[in-house]
TrEMBL record:
It comes from Uria aalge. The gene is Mtif3. InterPro entries: T_IF-3_C_sf, T_IF-3_N_sf, Translation_initiation_fac_3, Translation_initiation_fac_3_N. GO terms for cellular component: mitochondrion. Keywords: Initiation factor, Protein biosynthesis. Belongs to the IF-3 family. This is IF3M factor.
Length: 129
């Protein structure tokens, strides 16, 4: 099982590939180059190399500043937070608009418990006859 990258960040000098496709900090392609050239470029401009696409041939790396890396990490965290997680449960509750006060309080407590357990709650209210 290949290890998946845990976080988006600088790879430092640990680059397992000889030939890389490098993109500069402005998003422009610098083409394919040897690992040593990419490291030299990284040192000259005081930037960090970040792996973007490992599956491409050759792998795509981008030169980024620390600030750019931080912003991208925040963007990815927000995106991950927004996407529904596998195994997320949706609890559904429906009741009539003529529900008795004590029944409404009981169902309200139940909804609060589900929300604490991080369930998604869907409430349906039917109109009384």
């Amino acid at each position: 099982e290949p290890k998946t990258k845990a976080a988006f960040g600088s790879v430092g000098r640990r680059i397992p590939y000889r030939i890389l496709h490098v993109i500069n900090q402005d998003g422009e392609s610098l083409g394919n180059m040897h690992r040593a050239e990419a490291l030299k470029l990284m040192d000259q401009h005081d930037l960090k190399l970040v792996l973007l696409r490992e599956n491409a041939e050759p792998p795509v790396y981008r030169l980024m500043t620390g600030q750019q890396i931080h912003e991208e990490q925040l963007r990815r965290a927000e995106k991950k937070k927004a996407s529904p997680k596998p195994g997320t449960y949706i609890k559904e509750l429906s009741f009539s608009s003529a529900i008795a006060k004590n029944d409404l309080e009981t169902k309200t407590k139940q909804i609060a418990q589900w929300i604490e357990k991080k369930y998604h709650v869907k409430v349906t209210i039917r109109q009384a006859k």
